[in-house]
Design goal:
The protein has 297 residues and is of the alpha/beta class. Helix content is 42%, strand content 13%. It contains eight helices and seven strands; from the N terminus they run αβαβαβαβαβαβααβ. Strands 3-2-1-4-5-6-7 form a seven-stranded parallel sheet, sandwiched between helices.
Length: 297
Amino acid sequence: MTSDEASSNAWEQTVSVPTVKNIQWSFKDQVVMITGAARSQGRAHALAFARAGADIALLDICHDLATVPYPMSTEEDLSMVAKEIEALGVRALPIVCDVRSDSDVKSAIDAVVAQFGRIDVLVNNAGVYPFYSIFDLTEQAWDEVVDTVLKGAFLCAKHVAGHMRAAGRGKIVSIGSTSAITSVASNSHYTAAKHGLVGFSKGLAIDLAPYGINVNVVSPGAVYTPHVSSFFQQLAAGDDTELAPGGAFDLGGKWNLFNDEALHPEDITNAIMFLASDAARFITGQSIVVDQGFTIK
């Protein structure tokens, strides 16, 4: 494990996170499959569903990508999350899977169904977020972003949908972005991928509604994770204010990503769990934005 990876793991273990005191979800006897589950948002989603009683299938690529300028997750990260889940008294199945690969995804889903017998909830969380201007954006960089975000969601939904159709129910929640509404500099490839993800989910919702399957998107703003925190700390040290993540709430300063009221992975988890619950049984084809009001300003 590199020093960056070790510090990332330590950061996730110690950072204070928000709690919701008036809602208690139950996903007992359900199976939730989450991509990009080895750390950050994926880890938070996995642990929350596990606390709510679900068995969890954890998928992650566990190796670096050539055009992504930060360390990706590792098999050790994936194993650590699985152990955290099992400590909560439910089952975990960690699988190294590249969601860009049809054969990888099919094999992973076959393994999940063989182990747990079903998949009730799919959370398409896998994504990468490298910045490139159009002058520096290579075909490989485009493909690594678009294929991870959009093709990965397509392949996972394709191979899960048959199992959900046979069960007569299911929930698919994909992680979008405020980039599906607006954008920032050097972000055209990521913006395209997230716009595509919302469009794909709307069409998929129509196709799967007759089988009792809901398809929705949760679109986060800038979430307080190690990599995003580092990025905005660099911005805060300079004069570039274009990418400031400030929302509509007065949280005590422009750089409210660092305040106690910052947007945390668990804030995104809360929206996912609502859409995955029976409370959202007639919500489909929608994109719920969780961004502190950033995109309405």
